[in-house]
Amino acid sequence: VSNETFINGVWAATLTPLDNDLGIDTERLIRHAFWLLDSGVHGIGLFGTTGEAVSFSVDERVKALDALLTAGIRQDQLLVGAGCCALTDSIALAKHAVDAGCFNVLMLPPFYYKDMSDEGLAASFGEVIDRVNDPLMNVYLYHFPRLSGVPITAGLLDIVSQRYKGVVAGVKDSGGDYTNTQMMIERYPDLHIFPGSERFLHQAMIEGGAGCITATANANPRGIRDVWDAWERADADDAAARQTRATEIRSIVEKYPLVTGQKHLVAAHRKDPGWTRVRPPMTSISTTDGDALAAELQAADFSLTG
Amino acid sequence: VSNETFINGVWAATLTPLDNDLGIDTERLIRHAFWLLDSGVHGIGLFGTTGEAVSFSVDERVKALDALLTAGIRQDQLLVGAGCCALTDSIALAKHAVDAGCFNVLMLPPFYYKDMSDEGLAASFGEVIDRVNDPLMNVYLYHFPRLSGVPITAGLLDIVSQRYKGVVAGVKDSGGDYTNTQMMIERYPDLHIFPGSERFLHQAMIEGGAGCITATANANPRGIRDVWDAWERADADDAAARQTRATEIRSIVEKYPLVTGQKHLVAAHRKDPGWTRVRPPMTSISTTDGDALAAELQAADFSLTG
After folding, report:
1. CA distance A217 to A206
2. Chain A within 8 Å of B189 (Cβ-Cβ)?
3. Cβ pair A29, A67 in contact under 8 A
4. Which of A59, A60, A139, B39 to pair with B290, CA 20 to 30 A apart?
5. Separation of alpha carbons B40 and B23, rounded Å
């Protein structure tokens, strides 16, 4: 069963702001989500790596999603991270998202046990799909081997893209190796392939990708959207120029830790020091490093706006 | 604050049997726990790597622990795995264990984010300790870098063994490198250091270790306990002979996947095929491999007894 709720475009893997008890601060999260959308992203990846997803319990994640929806973020503007180590947690998160009308879910593989077989990983995704049991669900597999230690391989995709046709909808490729993204775009024409960095956005769109889902849209939502818009109106020169600029900003931001560096930028932009909080095992960026990041961006004539 | 509830001796990292819906089968688990204790282990590590811990939700783990206690397993016979990626999950599991009188908890570090600072990891353990807030809790840190990707380093231990003196109680070292175990035994005389394999049991006891916490006690509880008993009565020759035999059996069992291979052995021993079930991403061992493991053990004159 296929459906037409697939996502594409520029998606921000949102940061997750915290309150002073290290819980999720839904008020700050709601404001940031609207700011991201107002600044041009097509949608928001809630609870990916940048969102410290795995550091929060199922209950915390459910409440944060509900708060965003209650505040008026639309279901089709959200890609909900749902992949955990515990199969039952993944099922609970995916089911809650889908029941709430958020049909697009991003699934890390279970990432503690290493060197599991393709069939074992396929069975893990399969149990989630079977137990959520809603043909409207679109599952995007999350390839981030540096952190997960469990790659989404072609062997695995060959199985699940056939076995769960129309439900397994795409891949977020945060491997950082664009040749792997290219391979996926070519080999799986029915899947929606998103590089995990705007660095590859224009090239991926030319070659058949679906957009990008990126951490650094927390700092540069407008600049990344500009690449997309130029590509969409088939202005190759402008798209290339916009891509060069977006990549320049990305290159600065990613010299620093993506989560804590960008939390520092948002805190400064909103004059809200509480925004810098992270949940352990992360630690906030030092003031020195945070200021250095801000200074590098200023030197490049860049600032968060709006 | 120190206390005298620290564990030592031979501890089995128990398998977790499943029902036909892939839930935890508490009846099978209770029977297995009593069999392990009757067969000589001093205690049971509930929800370690061998117990597929991370594959279960907090609720599932809480219910399984409660079932064991209700069935009559004593609190001081349990080491409860409580370390998750989500800080709130770790707190919930540790608090439940301690509130139930199980003061010994085994903590994986949060294992998704890699290359976190010692202070970040220390803060993670610290939040659990502060929020459980019971001086009777003993925290054993779980070093298993091959799977977690997050080692328990000397730098981290230097911090937490001082900052949480008497609460941070020891380490399970499943790194497989005995020189690291030796380093910990020497450097932290106040900590209880357990190699994660009986292969190093006798040597560790001679050098000041606390015992072992081992997966393969699911197959060979008696043989490993025999090493301990010979060491305890200071019969060095007998201890060495028992160690050689225990190591021989270990070497056979660890040629095969430790979880699925041993589930196969228990299933055969109890004539209970349902015992072979595992939760994805694991897959049950093939009949061929399982039978080969059984045949190798038989050729070595070994069988599960009792």
Report:
1. 20
2. no
3. yes
4. B39
5. 28
pLDDT of residue A4: 65
* Separation CA A48–CA A54 (nearest Å): 8
Instruction: Please state the rounded mean pLDDT for residues B183-192.
Output: 98
Residue A49 bears catalytic tag: yes
- Chain B contact for A147, CB < 8 A? yes
Is the whole model's pTM more than 0.95, yes or no?
yes
> Phi-psi bin for A138: left (phi > 0), alpha (psi -120 to 50), beta?
beta
ipTM reported for the complex surpasses 0.95 = yes
Cis peptide before B257 (omega within 30 of 0): no
Q: Which tokens belong to B129?
A: 């300790």
Q: Are B110 and B85 in contact (CB under 8 A)?
A: yes
Q: Which ranges of chain A have pLDDT less than 70?
A: 1-4, 306
> Are B54 and A146 an interchain contact pair (Cβ–Cβ within 8 Å)?
no
pLDDT in tens, B206-220: 999 999 999 999 999
Are residues B113 and A282, on separate chains, in Cβ contact within 8 Å? yes
| CA distances (Å), origin A159, targets A1, A117, A118, A152, A188 | 17, 12, 8, 11, 12
Q: In the 3-class helix/strand/coil scheme, how is B172-221 assigned residue by residue? A: EECCCCHHHHHHHHHHCCCCEEEECCHHHHHHHHHHCCCEEEEHHHHCCH
Report yes or no: B154 at the A interface, CB cutoff 8 Å: no
What tens digit of pLDDT does each residue of A173-217 get?
999 999 999 999 999 999 999 999 999 999 999 999 999 999 999
Confidence of residue B6 (pLDDT cuts 50, 70, 90): confident
- C-alpha distance from B281 to closest chain A C-alpha (Å): 4
* Contact yes or no for A281 and B123 at CB 8 A: yes
Residues B132, B91 contacting (CB under 8 angstroms): yes
% of chain B surpassing 70 pLDDT: 98
